[in-house]
Give the backbone structure.
Amino acid sequence: MHDDHHHHDHDHDHHHHDNRYSDMQARVKALETVLAEKGLIDPKAIDAIVETYETKIGPRNGARVVARAWSDAGFAEWLKTDATAAIASLGYTGRQGEHMRAVFNTPDTHNLVVCTLCSCYPWAVLGLPPVWYKAPAYRSRAVIDPRGVLSEFGLTPPETKKIRVWDSTAELRYLVIPERPEGTDGLGEEALADLVSRDAMIGTAVAGVKP
């Protein structure tokens, strides 16, 4: 079965162009070095804060969106028709997440999100993008060989399952709603959210399996 790639025109002037990002990254690193040398900041503390926001606080928002969709059929339908409003109803809005679309994994289809031009990413629900999401190798290969990329993350969907690749842009960002794991009918939303990783909401993992 052929894999699908949904490409959207990017805004070539938005603020996440690779070169600009590299320049800003270099400036931030230089400033961090100067402040550390003056004893004004602790680099380890900065790293810990970034790690927390990247892997815990940010993705927890998205996990709660997924858990609500699993628990509330009405909310799931709202996500399908107007993800921006549905997500905002839970208090998750802001820069890099103004216009959202939720794509639902099913027994027949697995969704994978990429930004082929740069690193467009829904910060409001997933926090900071992982380094690999911004890497040229992922951005190109996710489109050309999505099954190969998924296998490198330890995920091997059956050949009968379609892989749909969604290309995030400055105007529209995607959130993958993974399939609900079996045997979780009795769990509340907080417990369900614990089963949802950041990678599952990008499409490089499945719910219930932590990366």
